[in-house]
């Protein structure tokens, strides 16, 4: 993801070496955050935060994206007025091989088993 933010609009992200397994697992333990990651995992490119139709308030949505960003699961940048999000798949796959794929497969299986809407 290319950082194209205007000065003062750069969002903090952990460096790859700072990403910790327990922080990633905590971030992915919430159903709303897992839903965001599932959607990002199927996207060909970054998605605007406003693209997500989540069953929570705007402020809670902002919180969920912040937890994902600060844990190193996603990267965010501003493009004009849009905040764009993308999965840090390369970083996660290098640090924790197979973890993301296993979690996403388990989430898909649970989704199918429970017949959830999302």
Automatic annotation (TrEMBL):
Q: Which Pfam families match?
A: HTH_20
**In what residue span(s) does the HTH arsR-type domain sit?**
13-107
Give GO terms: molecular function aspect only: DNA binding; DNA-binding transcription factor activity
Q: What is the lineage of its organism?
A: Bacteria, Bacillati, Actinomycetota, Actinomycetes, Kitasatosporales
Checking PANTHER family in the record gives: TRANSCRIPTIONAL REGULATOR, ARSR FAMILY (PTHR33154), TRANSCRIPTIONAL REGULATORY PROTEIN (PTHR33154:SF12)
This protein's source sits in the domain of life called Bacteria
What's the protein called, per UniProt?
Transcriptional regulator
Which InterPro entries does this entry report, sorted A to Z?
ArsR-like_HTH (IPR011991), HTH_ArsR_DNA-bd_dom (IPR001845), HTH_MetalResp_TranReg (IPR051081), WH-like_DNA-bd_sf (IPR036388), WH_DNA-bd_sf (IPR036390)
**PROSITE patterns, from UniProt?**
HTH_ARSR_2
Q: Supply the alphabetized keyword list.
A: DNA-binding, Transcription, Transcription regulation
- DNA-binding: is it a keyword of this entry? yes
